Amino acid sequence: MTHTLNIVGGGMAGSEAAWQAANAGLKVVIHEMRPKVETFAHRTGHLGEMVCSNSFRSDDHEQNAVGLLHWEMRAANGLIMQTAAKHRLPAGGALAVDRDPFAESVTAALTAHPNISVSYEEITALPDSGDWIIATGPLTSGTLAEAIRVETGADQLAFFDAIAPIVYADTVNMDVAWMQSRYDKGETEDERTAYLNCPMTRDQYEAFIDALLASDKTEFKEGETAKYFDGCLPIEVMAERGRETLRFGPMKPVGLTNAHDPATKPYAVVQLRRDNALGTLYNIVGFQTKMKYGAQKAVFKTIPGLEDAEFARLGGIHRNTFINAPTLLDSQMRLKSRPNIRFAGQITGVEGYVESAAMGLLAARMAVAQAHGLTLPDVPATTAMGALVTHITGGADAKTFQPMNVNFGLFPPLEGTGIKGGRRNRKDRYKAYTDRAKADWTDWLARTVPVPA
Questions:
Q1: Which residues bind FAD (predicted)?
Q2: Which of 95, 204, 252, 332 is most enclosed, with most CB atoms within 10 A?
Q3: Does 231 show up as a binding residue in the annotation?
Q4: Per-residue pLDDT tens digits for 37-52
């Protein structure tokens, strides 16, 4: 085919969309403003760069909704999942990757594809003609964001997202810390010992909370409001919600035994996850923060085992933007006022690397079908893909619309299984959700426009 699809943004959604469309025979142009135009969070000009965590979260496709989304993307020849498998790091039950080689591989695969070209310039206006996917993510440039706001006639929605710090592994005191994945998850020894754990007594935890609450934080600019996404709250905000919040969140001590003192159960535990294949860098899990740099060093060095820690990167905060997708997009992810433009990725109001890539995958397949003069049938809402796209294109309440990770709460109830609700039956219920989803996703793929491997 000679049809050309233009994709604005080379992150997870844009990269996956380009791969899907190019493999289906479309000519694709990726418009990526980096490295000419930088953002707060990106460090390179690579496509598919990971800017926050290096984890795609749970890979359990039988008991976890995001793991199910991994499975569905693999079944659809997804580039992001293929590349993640090549650069996987031990992370217990999670799918974590060596972030720089991952992005380099995504870039290499896309730039080597005969149907893909990359144009390194900033798109500042919504195009009037041609077929486009806007996949600029949460760090959409100010000029393009303003163009979107003017076109939609609505104030753009915004929330603040925070980045966790990264520590040099050889500066962690291993006389205090130990290696263990929660509940010893993993099939190999590397997986079962994928995390660094720093234990705290009650007094140490209380002192840490006091230091967090008293620390200097980044100030917001005039007119900005802090609408945090609950899945990525700064630790100071969590602490402000209650002194025990962190201990029941990222610092929960369950499933861990202190190798240095097995008889004593820690009151709280700070976990660090490997951030590169060499094992020289570890990020502090769940420790997104808006503390100023000096305060970060002072507060984090009160954590037992991190007294002499050195940081490869400190945490930070940036503004993320997303559209009110349930109001603005149709069921084919097209902007209602300009049907030649689709939106995909985090700008649509999905949250997370995997969810963003998944929406890129769907948007591209919809564009491929349209290029053939067809319309894709709706993705079954019983699948992880379908649950997400249904949520952002009308399933969510537009008045209270906020970014959302994939979760089983978005799935239609089970029927005819005899499985009751409640925590006691959760394992059977989740397995029934994933079994149903896999069957429905496989059937949907077989009925839609093929994308050759």
A1: 9-14
A2: 95
A3: no
A4: 777 667 788 999 998 7
